[in-house]
Design goal:
The structure is a single chain. Helix 4 packs parallel to helix 5 and helix 8 packs parallel to helix 9. The longest helix has 22 residues. The chain is of the alpha/beta class. It is globular and about 50 Å long. The strands form three sheets. Strands 7-6-5-8-9-11-10 form a seven-stranded mixed sheet, sandwiched between helices. Strands 1-2 form a two-stranded antiparallel ribbon. A two-stranded antiparallel sheet has the order 3-4.
Length: 302
């Protein structure tokens, strides 16, 4: 299992922590190297600076980290290193600086393996897409499932949504709320309503409880990199169905990992929604590896 694969700079680290087969590891390294070579010199310089910080932090965390296990298969999952540079001290976003704190991951926390305490590439992909196309959230009522640290919900608030309801398991809420408070001064619209609520996909709260009695729908629903355990696919799909109508725009960022989870998710999402795999480079001038997808979904008309 490779925790550090990010372009050629991390190939030597990747060789030390691999339990995946050689072909898969080589393909991951080649993918990151290709994307890295497409960066400008200035972007490469920034990447090197952030990667050095990231590498030191990850070495400390991985000394005690146990990777999540897919309970249906008993297999540990391939979680690649970051593609999008991240700095907990602040990243540029929409003419401001976005500050998101993380906490050490623990596989013993929650049904999701405690992954809600870290920022994942899928969240940064959705974050950058919102930055490039802010109209998808502007003046709209937004629900986010699996908000984790809160980076995507905070981004929606900065880009002028009317309201954003960020949700996750109870263990993630303190850090999420802390990150909301840190960034509150960045809201362009001081009237934006931001809330952090518990939502367990196995027992999601009723719509009126989550949204309040004044409305029974959201305009937009966001899901960032929440598809990786096959046991969570069916609960996620049921929750998506519960909180959407035919008018709701659903944006899901997704990284393909295990085959079983991928097949279950793709079958389920296409049964429930009309799905468009967004060409982010064409629509938003936003580059990404091919293993990442941004799906724009609308409920099928009954």
């Amino acid at each position: 299992l490779d925790f550090y694969a990010q372009a050629s700079r991390r190939k030597e680290d990747a060789a030390k922590d691999v339990t995946a087969d050689d072909t898969q590891t080589q393909a991951s390294s080649e993918l990151y190297e290709l994307e890295f070579n497409n960066l400008s010199d200035a972007e490469k310089a920034t990447w090197y600076k952030l990667a050095r910080r990231d590498k030191i932090r990850y070495k400390k965390e991985m000394a005690t980290y146990e990777p999540p296990v897919d309970s249906s298969s008993g297999c540990r999952l391939l979680l690649m290193g970051r593609f999008f540079p991240f700095d907990s001290e602040g990243i540029p976003f929409a003419d401001t600086t976005l500050i998101i704190k993380e906490a050490q991951n623990s596989s013993h926390i929650g049904e999701d393996g405690g992954t809600g305490l870290n920022v994942w590439d899928g969240a940064q992909l959705l974050l950058r897409y919102i930055e490039k196309v802010p109209n998808i959230v502007k003046s709209k009522r937004v629900i986010e499932l699996g908000s984790g640290c809160g980076i995507v919900g905070v981004a929606a608030a900065i880009c002028g949504c009317k309201e954003v309801i960020m949700t996750d398991l109870a263990y993630a809420l303190p850090l999420m709320r802390e990150n909301v408070d840190i960034n509150r001064a960045a809201w362009k619209d001081t009237d934006v309503v931001v809330s952090c609520k518990e939502c367990d996909w196995f027992q999601p709260p009723p719509v009126d409880e989550l949204l309040g009695n004044d409305s029974n729908k959201a305009d937009v629903l966001l899901v960032a990199d929440c598809v990786w355990l096959s046991s969570l696919i069916a609960p996620l799909l049921r929750t998506l169905k519960l909180y959407t109508t035919e008018s709701t725009d659903v944006f899901i960022t997704y990284q393909q990992r295990g085959k079983e989870a991928h097949d279950l998710f793709m079958e389920g999402i296409h049964n429930l929604f009309d799905v468009v795999d967004v060409d982010t480079l064409k629509e938003a001038d936003l580059a990404k590896p091919d293993v990442f997808h941004l799906l724009h979904c609308k409920r099928k008309v009954s």
